[in-house]
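Predict structure. Chain length: 77.
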Amino acid sequence: MSDEALCLGWRTSFVALQRTSSVTGKLRLAWMRQLYLDEMERRHPQGFANWFDSGARAGSDPSKFLTPRQPPPAAQH
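Prediction complete.
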């Protein structure tokens, strides 16, 4: 799973958790969200810590803290 897919899973699982009414469904989603958090922290410990230090929310997007940003291509002359 790519970092982008991991972050998307985190965000979409928040929406799914809000929409689920069954206890079993909520437990399953909470377990999945814990797995997402564990994997984010395993892959990017410093970025994960920075995300939390910035005030991470349950539905927030951690991608800017976890995925490297590529600089824009240099203009060619």
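Summary: Residues 3-53 form one domain.
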